[in-house]
Design goal:
single chain, Immunoglobulin-like, 5-stranded mixed sheet, 8 strands
């Protein structure tokens, strides 16, 4: 009987304690306003024209930037720079903390891949 209890215990999956839900801290949004997540990919379908991406102060900007050859991508005015290549796009996750219009640049070619229009909350 002891052997049967040992086998049953070995075959029973371990009990797991429930994990608390993940919580995200709110961004620096205006008081009473909820921040949003803005998800965008550049250069979009029509790569001949820079795509405009709009967000507000306090929003979380999740931006993926695809390039056709290895290069460096910069979010002008935001101080964010990342390397990218055709297999690994640049991936930015930024809480918007200022207003203005900023170019997304492919530094090696000087090409403007898109524009960020960041407005007040």
């Amino acid at each position: 009987m002891l052997l049967a209890a040992g086998i049953a215990a070995a075959l029973t999956p371990p009990r797991r304690e429930p994990q608390p839900a993940a919580r995200t801290a709110p961004g620096p949004a205006a008081e009473g306003a909820a921040a949003s997540t803005v998800v965008a990919t550049l250069p979009g379908r029509d790569a001949s024209r820079p795509k405009l991406v709009r967000a507000r102060v306090g929003d979380l900007l999740e931006l993926t930037v695809r390039v056709s050859r290895p290069d460096t991508v910069e979010l002008g005015g935001l101080g964010e720079v990342q390397a990218a290549d055709p297999d690994t796009p640049a991936s930015f996750s930024v809480v918007v903390d200022r207003t203005g219009r900023f170019d997304v640049l492919q530094l090696g070619t000087g090409r403007v891949l898109g524009r960020l229009e960041l407005a007040a909350a």
